[in-house]
Amino acid sequence: MHLQPVLLDGGRVAVVEAFVPRAELSRGVDQAWLALSGVAVVLVLGSVLVADRLGARVVKAAAGLADGARKMGQGDLTTRVTPSGPPELLDAGGAFNRMADRIGQLVANEREILADLSHRLRTPLTALRLDSETLGQDPNANRVRQAVHALEREVNELIRAARRELDDPDGGRCDAAQVVHDRLVFWSALADDQQRLWNLRGTERRALVPLTRSDLAAAMDAVLGNVFRHTPEGVGFVVALFHQVDRVVIVIEDAGPGIDDLEAALRRGSSGAGSTGLGLDIARRAAESTGGALVVDRGPLGGTRVQLRLGLAEEPV
Q: What 3-state DSSP class applies to 234?
């Protein structure tokens, strides 16, 4: 009950009495509190859900950028990201793709320059080395040969070191068929110059091996260089690639005089022709690094037959 005095005309005072039962005062309050609490819970849950979705979108976009950067850092220059998320991350994704395109272009240009350098230096060096072998056995001729071999080693090492970081786009794998074909194209100019008949077989189908392109190319160059170094001009050779169930076999065979002492030829640093004796050792280490082996014997053509038996690499997913 509530009493409220009210002043009337003539100085009179009236008292207004208002009475509300206690049950009426509390009727509906519990329901109102429940409704308000429910609305508050719904608003909190809704805001959390919206924040989670917005955060997940940002996190997913940032994770995509981080994954692309990680793959790029591991040498996968083909990686690209799908720009998503807020405008800032969209711009960052587009910038990343443009940067990756630019890096790929620069690396491709570097490879072309290095390939051209390799071709321009190795061909005259090979010719110079072959000419030095005809100078006789006097001390001056030996000094010339040693200087040519030293220069060739240094040039090969410089080119190999420069290409090591650039020539591994497949993460330690390469297509042996493509490498064999490319190296035969390189050596064919000198072979034609020396009137050597040559033949290439088996490179029509892809053969993925766990070697970098530069390492396999160095092994091929070492073996093919021996053909030109240790056989007379005009002697032909054959290069064949065989696909087997668990390995790839690259066979380089010539029609020259062959190797008299095969065991000595396979010893590191051993050579009976005045060379460094490291060529077959380079090829052997490359083959053994794949779980394979190097086999040297006499082939059907009558000369030396070198077999590079290479393990297979898993195809990229």
A: coil
Residue 126 identity (one-letter amino acid): T
Q: Cβ neighbours of residue 208 under 8 Å, at least 6 residues apart? A: 170, 173, 174, 175, 176, 312, 313, 314, 315
pLDDT at 275 > cutoff 70: no
Nearest to 290 by CA among 308, 276, 277, 304: 308
36: Cα within 13 Å, side-chain hemisphere:
6
Rounded to whole angstroms, the Cα distance separating 227 from 280 reads: 11
Closest listed residue to residue 254, CA positions, set 182, 176, 187:
187
Which conformational region is residue 271 in: left (phi greater than 0), alpha (psi within -120 to 50 degrees), or beta?
beta
Cβ atoms of 104 and 77 closer than 8 Å? yes
Burial of 8 (0-12, 13-18, 19+ CB in 10 A): exposed
Distance CA 230, CA 130 (A): 9
Tell me, rounded to whole angstroms, the distance of Cα 94 from its chain centroid.
23
**Residue 77 neighbours by CB distance under 10 Å:** 17
CA dihedral 98→101→316→89, nearest 10 degrees, is: -10
Q: Assess whether pLDDT exceeds 50 at residue 239.
A: yes
Half-sphere CA count of 268, side-chain side, radius 13 A: 5
Size of the chain in residues: 317
Q: Which neighbouring-strand residues pair with 309?
A: 249, 293
Separation of CA 221 from chain center: 22
Tokens (6 digits) for 141 = 């001729």
Distance in angstroms (rounded) separating the CA atoms of residues 211 and 275: 26
Q: pTM here?
A: 0.50
Amino acid 247: pLDDT: 92
